[in-house]
Amino acid sequence: MDWGMENRLSQLIQADGRCLFLPIDHGYFQGPTYKLEEPGKTIEPLLPYADGIFVTRGVLRSSIDPKKSKPIILRVSGGTSMVGNDLAHEGITTSMEEAIRLNVAAVGLSIFVGTDYEHDSLLNLAKLVDEGERYGIPVMAVTAVGKELEKRNARYLVLCSRIAAELGARIVKTYYCEGFEKVVGGCPVPIVIAGGPKADTALEVFEFVYDGVQKGAIGVNLGRNVWQNDYPVAMIRALREIIHGNATPKQAQELYDCIRSEELKSVKAR
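RESULT FIELD:
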């Protein structure tokens, strides 16, 4: 592996082989997402606990202080919206030259396997990998499902993840599912767990993250389940303990409850 590629990956994947990525790229197709209306304010208290930020160039430039940033995974695909005909009809929206200019640690894009635009999205990935390998910038492939959340099963996700790895992705972001060990076992590059819509409880998140890591994921790329939580700092700190401290879901819940209680006391004391 070239020095630049290895250096960038080591910024994202920590010495213990684990990572906690915080995505705030949702606006590229959802617009002003709940609790992400002002992304700079949302992530400021969370940055100390994240290993990397997944973000578009617009929000990176407008909302993240370059003097206080974390390693950046730059979202480089888009061109669709929630009100358009098909979320799968994405293209490359940001050049590799721009990624270099922004000094990013990696770039990321979505693939849409099994849709009318499968071919286009997979060629987007292949071309992006060609450019990334040329300049020593790793590519993270996101196994997107658009609005079809029922696709999040092991048979589908192992197919998507393996194809992404075969085309050269250095990291694959995919969903946790029943039989997740099959997804990890069929993918020869590191997998990080996507979150999807906000879960009903913090414990539910702790449980699927813990199980996913035990089954071979190197970490998470969770957004809404962190910053849409009423206590996002407690949430990200508890998740960090699972990923980097090998905490169990019960231990993570206890830490979450403790930090939440401290925050409530602080608010009442004002």
